[in-house]
Write a structure and sequence with these properties.
The structure is a single chain. With 204 residues, the protein is mainly α. The protein has two domains: 48 residues, Arc Repressor Mutant, subunit A, CATH 1.10.10; 151 residues, Tetracycline Repressor, domain 2 (Orthogonal Bundle). Helices cover 75% and strands 0% of the residues. Helix 7 packs across helix 8.
């Protein structure tokens, strides 16, 4: 059965592909309207202006990434009660998921907004900031639980380490796109996994 895409979702799909390929400044409402085969009034029915489109794009991206992280780390917890092993399993599941994408990850809208902040309005920049802070909290909470059971072998700030996890994921997306090698992202995730094992896993 064919799933019908709403006009709003179609506009978002077209805009996301264009923004990831050419940037926000290089994406015009005219080209979105032409590709979606709608009128300009049809576009403005869904989005009052380009900034509202940007926020909707970013929110959809954040929601998708959060759902993926909820899924992989939720499944990991179901597979192992130990917080360290659950984290390691979750990262491996995420790496496998990214490796299964035939053309690699399509790109990171969080990085796109961060690298061209002046093109976006204040609410869009704030939405971006809050997403990054939420990922920091997510991973910091997981690391605190791990550290309670497995004291780290090095003097590390767990909040900074939480940011590093986000940096590896988002940076891996950017690097994969830059060098056109989809395997860079899963490889980076597996390297992160190795580091966390060395940092927390007790020496037998």
């Amino acid at each position: 059965m064919t799933v019908k895409t709403s006009k709003r979702e179609l506009i978002l799909d077209i805009a996301q592909e264009s923004v990831l390929a050419k940037g926000f400044g290089g994406t015009s409402i005219d080209e979105i309207v032409a590709e979606a085969q709608i009128t300009k009034s049809g576009f403005f029915y869904h989005f009052k202006d380009k900034n509202e489109l940007a926020r909707a794009l970013l929110q959809r991206y954040i929601d998708t990434e959060d759902a993926i992280l909820d899924d992989v780390f939720g499944r990991a917890k179901d597979l192992h009660d130990d917080p360290l092993h659950a984290m390691l399993i979750g990262i491996k599941l995420l790496a496998e998921l990214m490796a299964d994408l035939p053309n690699g990850h399509p790109g990171c809208l969080v990085a796109t907004v961060s690298h061209a902040e002046r093109l976006y309005d204040r609410p869009t920049r704030e939405l971006n900031r809050q997403a990054i802070l939420a990922w920091r909290k997510r991973f910091h909470t997981m690391l605190l639980e791990i550290a309670e059971r497995y004291p780290p072998k090095d003097d590390v700030n767990l909040e900074v380490l939480a940011d590093m996890i986000s940096t590896v994921i988002e940076g891996g997306i950017v690097m994969s796109r830059a060098v056109q090698e989809p395997k860079v992202l899963p490889d980076q995730l597996m390297m992160l996994r190795s580091y966390l094992k060395l940092l927390f896993q007790p020496t037998i």
